[in-house]
Amino acid sequence: MKIVVLDGYTENPGDLSWDALAALGELTVYDRTSLTDEEEIRRRIGDAEVVYTNKTPLSRRVIEACPQLGMISVLATGYNVVDCAYARTRKIPVTNVPAYGTASVAQFAIALLLEICHHVARHDAAVHAGRWEQSADWCFWDTPLIELDGKTMGIIGFGNTGRQTGRIARAMGMRILAAGSRPTPEGRAIADYVSLEELLAASDVIALHCPLLPSTQGIINRETIARMKDGVILLNNSRGGLVVEQDLADALNSGKVYAAGLDVASTEPIRGDNPLLHAKNCLLTPHISWAPRESRQRIMDCAVENLRAYQAGHPIHVVNFGEAT
Predict the structure, then answer these.
(1) I need a surface site. Which of 65, 138, 140, 236 has the fewest CB within 10 A?
(2) Which CATH number is 42's domain given?
């Protein structure tokens, strides 16, 4: 069996091993493949039966050109890069890696929040620049510091990652509100489920942990921001398309939104003309919430598990037509 990984570098820049996958077939790993050149994508798949992708798109045209494909596997949870509907008509299972990043993504959301509240990096730089040494007092700070105890965090999207973020925030003394997911007993133990309108109006901090769907595209926009508290903090390390970026930039510059911590952008890598690059109090990181080694190892383990199940005739983690094909 021939196996191709189209864009393996972000999953494994050298600190993991492909050996377990290679043991299951003739493996070829490309660090990167063009996101736009369908001829290159088709050529690299060649006559492989199994293809792994992270962000390299597999359109209907590509799938049509590769009639030997038996399984497409995404090295991530989101699978919008694959034409799943067409793959289904070809009886090709599309598999993903669910829930691998719950701990790391929730941890990163809180890291963004704590940096906004305490400006740790800024004050570290000030100390190294000699400003503490030159201070007339035994301590100094040059930007407001925020205590989170007693404040309210609203989480839009209360699945695995949203609940984990809520657990951590609750441990810091925050009240948790949840919207955008069906209530569960596990969720009720962490948060009060409310309408989106109530969440927007009551939250001091709003965290986005929902998928990017037609119903959530641009959910943070001029109108929803207007219904938020003055001075709210916004966190997004889910999907960039959840936010209308110009509207958020305007709200940051006006002070309506006190600060934003964002690990994602509408176009990635971020474009130089993105308005958030020049907005006030906007903390931006390059989509790394998912990237701790432990998290990526879970992706690798699941990628192997998916292939073994396919070879056994019982595919798992299938997203386009159930668990069995």
Answers:
(1) 138
(2) 3.40.50.720
